[in-house]
Specification:
By secondary structure, this protein is of the alpha/beta class. It has seven helices and six strands; from the N terminus they run E-H-H-E-H-E-H-E-H-H-E-E-H. Bound molecules: farnesyl diphosphate.
């Protein structure tokens, strides 16, 4: 029996195209995406996966039309307030990665609430990347290192990870839905040895069955971490 990945990451792409295909407004696709994330995350944690990181909003997404940005921000506020009980009950700790600056006070308040309410949970971690950019994360880590006057010469690749927004294990399996083959500045350092998978499915349709298929593909991969193949 092959081991499951410990840390799974998903770039939840294709909400807009999912809606367009159904002649619905783009924002409806985001709503469906958020509902899918709720269900899918519980399913993923039921498989024993310890950490799930998801790309909710990139630093660059602020350049989208303001009605879409506002819709997404309102959706975050609504969902964090309405879903924290469920995450709490299921013993899942919710954390955030990203810059707090530029986020509305009500968004920050909802983020802080769900973080606080779930902070002692121990079964698994849901890492929501919001106003997140991988390059900024590296810059912010460097700032912390300089501020703490950390001895830079002895810094190891593993130690650098402790300075990121969240101290999480490296990503084992990274999925980007909707048939786009890019990482788009998402957890670049943490994905150094991740297995990558790019299904065609739009995120709102990336359900439990799709995840089973993905996991099966992961189990057939041969992870070598730079070493030679063992027979
Ligand atoms: C990319 O699809 C998706 C986003 C920018 C937003 C992702 C957000 C969610 C799935 C909701 C998460 C909700 C909570 C409560 C955490 P796109 O809009 O770029 O799709 P397109 O490429 O088809 O246009």
């Amino acid at each position: 029996m092959k081991e499951n990945p410990k840390h799974v990451a998903i770039i939840m792409d294709g909400n807009g195209r999912w809606a367009k295909k159904r002649m619905l407004p783009r924002n409806y696709g985001h709503k469906q995406g958020s509902e899918n994330l709720r269900k899918l995350s519980f399913y993923i944690f039921d498989q024993g996966i310890e950490v799930l990181s998801v790309f909710c909003f990139s630093t660059e997404n602020f350049s989208r039309p303001s009605d879409e940005v506002n819709y997404l921000m309102n959706l975050f506020v609504e969902k964090f307030h309405s879903e924290f009980e469920e995450y709490k009950k299921k013993n899942i700790k919710v954390v955030f990665s990203g810059r707090r600056e530029n986020l509305r006070p009500d968004v920050l308040e909802a983020m802080d609430k769900i973080t606080e309410e779930t902070k002692n949970n121990t079964r698994a971690i849901l890492n929501l990347c919001l106003n997140y950019g991988g390059q900024y994360e590296l810059i912010d880590a460097m700032k912390k290192i300089i501020k703490e006057k950390k001895e830079i010469d002895s810094l190891t690749p593993e130690e650098l990870m402790h300075y990121f927004y969240q101290d999480l294990p490296p990503i084992d399996f990274l999925i980007r839905t909707s048939g786009e083959y890019r990482l788009s500045n998402f957890m670049l350092y943490q994905s150094s040895y991740a297995e990558l998978y790019f299904p065609e499915t739009y995120f709102p349709d990336f359900d439990e069955r799709e995840f089973d298929k993905a996991l099966d593909i992961y189990h057939h991969r041969d992870r070598r971490f730079g070493s030679i193949k063992e027979k």
